[in-house]
Amino acid sequence: MRLNMQHIHSKLRRAWLFGLSCWPLAAVHAQSHQTISLNDLRAFRTPPASWAIAGSISADPGKNHDLRTETGTGILANLPVSGGADIYTQLEHGDIDLDLEFMMAKGSNSGIYLQGKYEIQLLDSWGKENVTFGDCGGVYERWIEHKQQGYEGYAPRINVSRAPGLWQKMEISFAAPRFDQYGRKIANARLLRVALNGVNLHENLELTGPTRGGGIAEANRGPLRIQGDHGPVAFRNIRYRLLDNPPIQLGELKWEQFATTTDFAPDLSTLKPKASGKTKMLTHEVMNENSQFTLRFTGKLSVPADGDYHFDLHAYGSGTLRIDGNEIIGKGWWFRSGTANLSAGDHQVEIIYTKKESWWPNGLGLFVEGPGIRRQALHIESSVPLGQMARQIFLDYESEPVLMRCFIDFRRHPDSAAHRITHAISVGFPEKTAYSYNLSTGTLLQVWKGGFLDATPMWDDRGDGSSQPNGSVLPLTDEPQLAVLATSETPWPTFNKENSPFRPRGYELDDNGRPVYQYEAYGFSASDKIIPTSDGRQLERTISCKGSGQGNLYLRVVSSKEIKAVSATLYLVDGAYFIETAAKPLLRNSGGQQELLLPLDAGNSITYQLIW
Amino acid sequence: MSRYLLYILPALLWSILPAQSQTGDKLLPTENDYYKIVTLPLPEGLVLEVGGLATLPNGNIAASTRRGEVWVIENPYMLNGQYPHYRRFASGLHEILGLAYKDGALYLAQRGELTRLVDKDGDGKADLYETVYAWPLSGHYHEYSFGPIVAPDGSMYVTCNVAFGDQEWWRGESRVPWRGWTLRITPDGEMEPFATGMRSPCSIGLVDGELFYGDNQGDWMGSGGLVHVQKGDFTGHPAGLRWADRPESPVKVRLDEIYKRADPRFTPPGKDPIKPENIENETPKLLSDIAKEVPGVKLPAVWLPHGILGISTSEIVTDRSGGAFGPFEGQLFIGDQGQSKIVRVFLEKINGVYQGAAFQFREGFQSGVLRMSWGHDGSLFVGQTNRGWGSTGKDPYGLERLAWTGKTPFEMKEIRAKVDGFEIVFTQPVDKATAANPASYAITGFSYKYHPVYGSPVVNQQNCPIKGIVVADDGLSARLVVDKLRLTYIHEIKAEGVRSYSGSLPLLHNTGYYTLHAIPDGEKLSLPAAGHAGHSATGQTANRGRSGVSGQTGTTQTGASGQTGTTQTGASGQTGTTQTGASGQTGKPAAGKRITKMPADWGKADKSITLSTLPGLKYDQGMLTVKAGSKVKLTFTNNDDMPHNVVFVNPGAADEIGKAAMALGLKGPEMQYVPNSPKVLHHTKLIQPGTAETIYFKAPSQPGDYMYVCTFPGHYQVMRGILRVQ
Question: Do the beta carbons of residue B350 and residue B418 sit within 8 Å?
């Protein structure tokens, strides 16, 4: 009687990965970020002359050091005409979570110094094959002046730089060095996480001292410093959370174990516990039971400040969390979350964990995050089943294109809910560029560079049929890109899966092993080819169609918030990527979005490049 | 160096001798003597998780894998002692679970479509990946798609797995059309929904040009079985009925017709989820009960009793080797993933309905048997994988070849339904005395429940008394007149006491399971009066030196009870109600070997041992050491996800007891899978997952290395340890 035991195991492995890590993929912070105001330069100490506030900014990715601003607010730009200098914030920080967006000009060089001392390098590393500590996202090296020698520089794991002229996102979680009462350092500064464009480049990295140019002394606090003497660079949306509060404390707990034969906890108010006791540590190991039970903990939770506290409950079975009698996480399976708004001080906490399927392992974990407090575990490590992490299975680029059909979980933004594309194919080129494509509708879903695919979710144990891109993903769209429009004003139709106008016909490999997709759309026969160009910096897509379909067929290349013409053939989409096409596009506002359409005539083909 | 060899050589020799079972002093043949398994060596790094196998016109084998690849294997027969050569033909497909060669192309079902692969430029690799037909998916992991099976008219069948619920994670559901269905697709890509009721239809095959499939035990599915699928059939799992009223659907059965007869036991709204468990004291509802009232419900033609003839039915193939694969020409071979074996089915058609008998055939494959395909020399290629589900064979994947040695095993070749019972046809002549003795046989009828619970216990068990037996003159068949047969029921037919004429061998596999749907017309057997030699239909008396006498109910014949000089048939004759059978196994394990309360005169135990399990069919301790004669308290905790027991046996007896436990068949569960044998010293009951038992026993007084073993079917070969008595 095998039941779904193995499936639970693979669920456990991925969930355990999730639970044990401090950085869930979609960061949910109970405390909202503060933003550094960029209406003027008041947030900065004596701003050097090369720095200014701007309203909008653009750059030609082909022109060296090209960065042009327009008046307005919201953007901090450095345009060093004759030398520039570093800029420092008024704000001083210790432990901090920082995220910001930056834009490089071609060939430019900058950096973010945490506490003014530890530099994360910013560089135009677009398209570079091998990257070092001096490339974008690297931790700059330390420096021995009298030897003129560098050391302890850390290269980014992979190159996820975008083209100059595009906004890129940097996320940094930093822990300041710790000192004793005599001022002696007792713990190194640490980069808990550095992520560029959504990809972790460094994790849990100890910094033994300031990087080059960061001085010698280390301290509890220091300002943010941005390098300004090496070329044009711009910033926006500089947000941070100071993590200055002490951790949350869980007091001594009373535990009770009840006999249970249901999947969810019964009403415990009238039941007598089979066993009970007190414990200083939150763990299921207090009881001597592996098969069926309800385990309840009650005790005191002390929080240092008023605010929202976000809880993640990992109950290997089902669980509930109550604070001060209020249900924060209601009855349900496995891993769930909830938020409670609490005042500083003590609160009553009640955790209930029930397991009925005796062959599931025991496991109970409770994580909490609060205002100015990093996410911490309230349970002890042995309370969750260890040693079940899957061995990773990566698909790498090869000398011929690598194709892989699998479920792709498409997200419009890193924080949005995933939409599972079931008939997707991903292709990775030897130029280390990849894309995912929806075979059911002929939609180019997303592109990325770096690694190809992490196939562990698909091929470990039973798997869930999906794989994840192993690089920094640029999501494009999950809506069909072909439609027949009666007039150029006709809104883009909504798509009916049941009576789909698309019929996929598969693909054929060309002489270089690259797939050319064939499908029918609205009675036309379409052929769709996507290949890398410019050493993998760009993807070029060519669609041709023939046949006797009715009506005007259009390809909707973009549907987005903002499309800006940079030149006669180059368009900037949401500051995130460029579309280049020799064809004459139809640009229009429709349904609250800006759209870029290309008409498709039977017998003709259209081509555009995607540059990011 | 040479002295070293002297020491290890005997051990080496011993390990390469063919495994032979022992009864007393005699060495009996095993499956390996008749059918050899050859393992194809795979180069390092080739993850051949076989999802599909096809034999190409030139005898090469094509294998599709769960990693989305198609490999062509040249020289899979390893002629001239050469390695097979593996060439990758295609890649990048989504969990392929089938493969078929047709008209110069390879067809395969991946998760979301039926694909046709063509090598257009002749470079040995596919360039055209054509979508023949794409079906909807919800993205749930369990929505596997199997096939295709190519029908005689060139159309192709694909079968589709269900998904499972989010809150009710035990319940199969059909989230999008046509999950839980069989689809028929033409090469031009026209699709018609064909039948539904499928839950996990991995097992598919063509027999007589007709589509057959086998499901796996699960919710609503009491056991796996072989089902003849015709257009419009409903085969049991209700999930797919969600789409039955679509205009394209040929299925007339409706969900409410099923649910009003078999309560689906959904969690009531607003209540916590409750997984339905088996209800002990209820009148079992059978799928055949429903089939009587609801037209369109199709029962399995031949059930494959769960745990005995597999736990996860896979591929169905038919022997058309013209005798190159042994004596079973025309019969079916069905793979099993979980028990790493192949079972055999003799199929017949009575009054237009398929039915027949299923037998053990060959175990011992390296991983889970998923797909099979005939080689050009009449050998059978067996493609395997166990990722995600585990199997008795411990390798994660592989490809093996099963070949007949040319020696004919002594087997029940066929069991045929007759107007008044069964006829067993043997592969070799039987010793008439044993074959004519009712005490050599035991027949039990049983069925499975139809309910939303995962799997089903065996229900409505009933002994079927043998009223008379006539053995044919040539000794190649025996007709049994049997009472209390029930239509739609499975009949376990054990023939433990039958011996071959030549060599006095027992049957290689002594049990067949006959699913009876229809009783043929024909002439009833005329049974002789008590004490006379039995007559065959031709009226000639047996003339082989021993007379076979048919027993009768109500009387015991001692002198002429069929005991020959060379075989022990155990209890002779029959009583009116119980059959003790040839092996002397009653319905209860022998008393005194399982003591669950500390004996009053002990005071306290000398040694307390806690034993539990590790994943992969292992006890957590491989050796336990006790003093001779000491008082031992043993607590066994089963923290695995399947049942186990602990049986302490004499030195070296683990294999014998493990095999004997397998042979208990249906009696197994009530006997805790512990056979009655003097070699069994102490044992626990069968412990369900997550529970425990404590037993008390005195260690043997004679020092030595005794053994403990788990005798649940399929476990004994690996799950064991040594009890060192000092």
Answer: no
Return the pLDDT at A8: 52
The pair phi, psi for residue B10, each rounded to 5°, is: -60, -40
pLDDT digits (tens, 9 = 90+) for B501-552: 999 999 999 999 999 999 999 999 887 665 444 444 443 333 333 333 333 3
DSSP for B123-175, written as a single string: SSS--EEEEEEE------TT--EEEEEE-TTS-EEEEE--EE-SSSTTSEE--
To test the contact with chain B by mutation, choose from A8, A9, A423 the residue with the greatest count of B C-beta atoms within 10 A, namely: A423
Residue B116, both tokens? 């046709």
Under an 8 A CB cutoff, do A263 and B274 touch? yes
> Burial level of A592, CB count in 10 A (0-12/13-18/19+)?
exposed
Whether the CB of A395 is below 8 Å from some CB of chain B: the reply is no
Q: What's the Cα-to-Cα distance from B71 to each of A589, B41, B82, B245, rounded to whole Å?
A: 51, 14, 18, 41
Single-letter amino acid, residue A566: V
Alpha-carbon gap, residue B178 to B170, rounded angstroms: 20
Answer yes or no: do B112 and A264 touch at CB < 8 A: no
Residue of A nearest to B128 (CA): A508
List all residues 6 or more positions away from B663 whose beta carbon is below 8 Å from its beta carbon: B496, B510, B511, B583, B675
Determine the distance from the C-alpha atom of residue A530 to the mean position of all C-alpha atoms in its chain, rounded to a whole number. 26
Q: Which residue of B has its CA nearest to A400?
A: B91
Neighbours of A506 (CB within 10 A): 19
Retrieve residue A153's tokens.
């520089």
3-class SS of residue A322: strand
**Stretch (H or E) spanning B185:** strand B181-185
- Can you tell me whether residue B76 is helix, strand or coil? coil
Contacts of A269 (CB under 8 A, 6+ apart): none
Q: CA-to-CA distance for B647 and B706, rounded, in angstroms?
A: 11
Task: Cite the beta strand spans of B600-675 per DSSP E.
Answer: 607-611, 613-614, 618-619, 623-626, 631-637, 647-649
How would DSSP label each residue in B653-667? Answer: -HHHHHHHHHTTGGG
Cα angle A271, A276, A278 (rounded to 5 degrees) comes to 135
Give the span between the Cα atoms of A246 and B96, in whole angstroms.
54
Q: What six digits make up the tokens of A172?
A: 């940094």
What's the token pair of residue B665? 């068949």
- What is the rounded (10 degree) CA torsion for B191, B196, B202, B205? -70
What does the pLDDT read at residue A31?
65
- Best to test chain A binding among B88, B115, B118, B129 (most A CBs inside 10 Å): B129
Cα–Cα distance between B517 and A57 in angstroms, integer?
A: 81
**Nearest residue of B to residue A422, measured between CA atoms:** B139
Calculate the CA B28 to chain-centre distance.
Answer: 22
In this prediction, does ipTM exceed 0.85? yes
Q: Please indicate whether, in this complex, the C-beta atoms of A504 and B95 are within 8 angstroms of each other.
A: no
* Nearest-angstrom CA–CA distance, B45 and B464: 54
Distances (CA, A) of B297 to B231, B244, B253, B289, B487: 11, 13, 7, 10, 16
Sole residue written with tokens 């270089």:
A512
Tell me the per-residue pLDDT of B1-54, one tens digit each, with 9 for 90 and over.
455 455 445 444 444 444 455 445 568 999 999 999 999 999 999 999 999 999
Residue of A465, A504, A505 lying closest to B139 (CB–CB): A465
Reference B350, options B185, B172, B191, B516; nearest CA is: B516
Query: Buried b / exposed e across B323-336, counting CB within 10 Å, b at 16+?
Result: ebbbbbeebbbbbb
Q: How many CA atoms lie within 13 A of B333 on its CB side?
A: 26
From residue B597, alpha-carbon distances to A289, B21, B605 in Å are: 21, 36, 12
Whole-prediction pTM value?
0.85
